[in-house]
Amino acid sequence: MADPWERRDGEGDEAWQAFQMYRDMGLTRSTAKVGKELVKSRDLMLRWSAHWDWVARVQAWDVEQDRVWVLEQKAARRAMARRHVSIAGQFQAAVVERLKTFDSRTMKARDLALLMDTAAKLERAALGEPDQRVQVSGQLDTGLTDEERLARLDALQREAQRRVEEAGGDGDDASA
Questions:
Q1: Which residues contact 167 (CB under 8 A, 6 or more apart)?
Q2: pTM for this one?
Q3: Domain extents in the chain
């Protein structure tokens, strides 16, 4: 079965265009706005919305868009971490190289130590390691992991798909 937000069999060009507009409005979507934009009656928009199950379809769309966004964020964070680890390694190598030719007249030892500490902190942060370790009693709620969030999004998408199917999601149901 096609994704719920895709065009339905029998869904005419105007109804499909209206649904796409409704879908793409995001959180501010309304059938009244679609009707006004397309110069169509409010009643027609309500009929199309009911007949073509716009609400369930956009719920599935919103869940899918959130799922895609989470995956994009995860990929971007990984790429950023790789860049930062590389930079930290180069930074550390430069400090080590400087140690080989250390001259206390041009640089203080504490400056080199500070540079190495900064490079190490950058690397730890890029790898998701804490800057320092602190003993904490009790359990801290740090929120959901990416995997948990994706699992919840998948469950929401399955629920939206189920609702579409329960409502006669193939688009062949009687007119509302």
A1: 53, 56, 173
A2: 0.58
A3: 1-52, 55-131+151-167
1-26 pLDDT per residue, tens: 789 999 999 999 999 999 999 999 99
Write down the residue that tokens 């339905």 correspond to.
8
pLDDT in tens, 154-171: 666 666 666 666 666 543
Question: How far is the C-alpha of 40 from the C-alpha of 64, rounded, in Å?
Answer: 29
Contact 124, 130 (CB under 8 A): yes
**HEC letters along the chain:** CCCCCCCCCCCCHHHHHHHHHHHHCHHHCCHHHHHHHHCCCHHHHHHHHHHCCHHHHHHHHHHHHHHHHHHHHHHHHHHHHHHHHHHHHHHHHHHHHHHHCCCCCCCCHHHHHHHHHHHHHHHHHHCCCCCCCCCCCCCCCCCCCHHHHHHHHHHHHHHHHHHHHHCCCCCCCCCC
If pLDDT is split at 50, 70 and 90, which confidence band does 112 have? confident
